[in-house]
Amino acid sequence: MAAVLGISCYYHDAAAALLINGKVVAAAHEERFTRKKHDENFPVNAVKFCLDWAKLEPRELTAVAFYDKPFLKFERILVTAIETWPKSSLAFVPAMRAWLTKKLWIKSLLMEELEGYGGEWYFPQHHLSHAASAFLVSPFDRAAILTMDGVGEWETATRGFGEGNRIILTDKIDFPDSLGLLYSAFTYYLGFKVNSAEYKVMGLAPYGKPKYVKTIKDNLIDIKPDGSFKMNMKYLAYPYALKMTNANFDELFGEPARPLGFKPTQTEMDIAASIQAVTDEVMVKAAKTLAREYKTDKLCMAGGVALNCVANGKILTETPIKHLFIQPAAGDAGGAVGAAAYVYHTVISNQSSVNRNRKKWVWDTCFLGPEYSNQEILKLLKRYKVKYQVLPVKQLLNRVADLIVDQQVVGWFQGRMEYGPRALGNRSILADARNPENQKRVNLKIKFRESFRPFAPVVLEEAARDWFKLYWTDPYMLTVCPVKNNKIPSVTHVDKSARLQTVSRKQNPVYYDLIKTFGRKTGVPVLINTSYNQRGEPIVCTPEDALMSFLGTDIDYLVFNHKFILDKKDMPARLISRARSRKFEPD
C-alpha cells in the first residue's frame, strides 16, 4: 500500500488530502473545522481527519508532499521588495515576520505535526501541483493543461500537456504579470475582500455593460493572440503594498477604491462586467491556442482562475475544447491533492512495478470529508433537547418534497462533507427554483448576503438539456450556461444564465431521489442548491454546525442523514435566541 499525504497552507484555503494507491480517500479544508473562512494556517485538523479516516498513523505514510517550494516563494518576496523599495517598506516588515517565524520552516513544522513519520518529504512547485491536481486524476490519458491563479512561487500561469503519468509545462507567465491578481485588484477596488469575494465580482458582472474593456486593455493588460499577456504595473500596488491598487488606478476609473461593504451602483456593475469580459478573452484565447498546438479537444484546468464559471462556460462554447476537466477544489486547497498525486504518479509508481501497472484512478466524487452517524446526530439532538421526527427514507423524501413545494426552505445535511468551495448535495440549503421570491428571501433572511448574488440550480442529469442550453454534464458546478425555460426564475441570473449542478443517481442517490420526487410532483426537476452556511462563515461541517445555522437563520426545516427532520416551529425560543446572538451552548 502506498499512502501519500498532501498539504497546502500559508496563503489561503489550507487543506489536506490523503491518497492511497493513487486514489483520493479523504480531503478537507481546514476552515471547515476551525470555522475561520479561508483559514490559511497549518491544517492540523484536516490532517488528523485524513489519517483518522484511513486509520493510519504518521509512521505508516509512504510520503508527504507540500504544494509549493517555500524557499523559492521567499526569493520572490525578497527580490520584489528590493526592486520596489522604498515603496515596499511598510509591507516588508510584516511579510518578513511571517516568513522568518513560520513560513520558511515548513519542513520542521511538518516533522513536528507528523511526529513518528520517517519517510521522504516532497515539495513540487505550486503550478506543478495545480497541474497534477487536474490532469493526474482526470479521465484523460492525454490532454492539454492550463493553470492560472494569483501567484505561486514566481509563476502566475502555465500551460502544457499531460500524457500517461507525465506532465510537461512548456510555457509560463511570471509575477507580477497575473490575471488572477488583476481580477483581485478589481475585487479590491469594488469594495470586496481579496482572496475571498472574487466570485461576487463574477456575480455582479451580468448587471453591467463592459464599458471599460478598452480602458483596461489600453492601460492595464496587453493580451496577445495566444492568450499570454503583459501588465502595466503603473496602476497596481500589490507588488509593494498591503493593497491592490494605487492612485493611478483611482484616476483611471475616476473614483477611489470603494470601502468594504460598499453597495454597488451601475458604475461598479459596469466595471465588474468589463474585467469579466477581459478574463473571458484571455481564457478563451489560451484554450484555443492549446487546442491548436496539441491537436486536442481535451483540457485540464486548475488554479483559482479555473473557478471562474463564466469563463469556463465560454471555453466550452467558443473554442474547440469539448471535454473540460476541472477538479472541484481547483484553488489552493486542491494543491494538496495535486502535490500528493504528483509524488504518487511520478515517484512512487516508478519505483514499483505493481503500482506502475495499476490503472489510474479517475476522480469521481467531491464527497471526501467527514461524515457523522445517526447515533452521533441523535446524541446531539437529545443534548440540546430539541424535537425531531424520524421517517423512513421514501416517506422522508415525499415529506421534504412537499415542504419545498409549499415554499419551505430546507437545510440538507447528509453523508461526507464536500471538498472544494461548492456545496453539492451533502451540506446544502434547498428551496423551490420556481418561486421568484426565493432568490431574495434566501439571500437576505438566510444567507444574510447581498441581494444581487445569484443562486445555483441543481437538475437531474437526464433532464438538464430540457432546462438549460447545455452540451456537457457538470456535477461540480463549475460552468455557466444559458437557461432555456422561464419556469425557474429564482436560479436564472439577470443575463438569463445559471451556474448549475447536474446530478445522477450514481453520484448521490438520495439527493437525486429527492429532486426526482420534487420533479414528479411539480414537473420541474430543478431546485435551488446553495451552500449550507451564513455569510462570512465556511460551509457547515458537523451536525452541531448545521443545527446552529438552522437556529440562527430563517431556514424552516433541517434534515439530518435523510432520517431526522426538525421543524423550526418546534425549536425552543431560548436556543434560537442563543444561536442568533452567536452564543450557542447546550444546557
Automatic annotation (TrEMBL):
The record places domain Carbamoyltransferase at 4-340
Residues in Carbamoyltransferase C-terminal domain copies: 401-564
Give an example GO molecular function: catalytic activity
> What's this protein's family per the entry?
Belongs to the NodU/CmcH family.
What is the protein's name according to its record? Answer: Carbamoyltransferase
- Which organism was this protein described from? Candidatus Chisholmbacteria bacterium RIFCSPHIGHO2_01_FULL_48_12
Its ancestry begins with:
Bacteria, Candidatus Chisholmiibacteriota
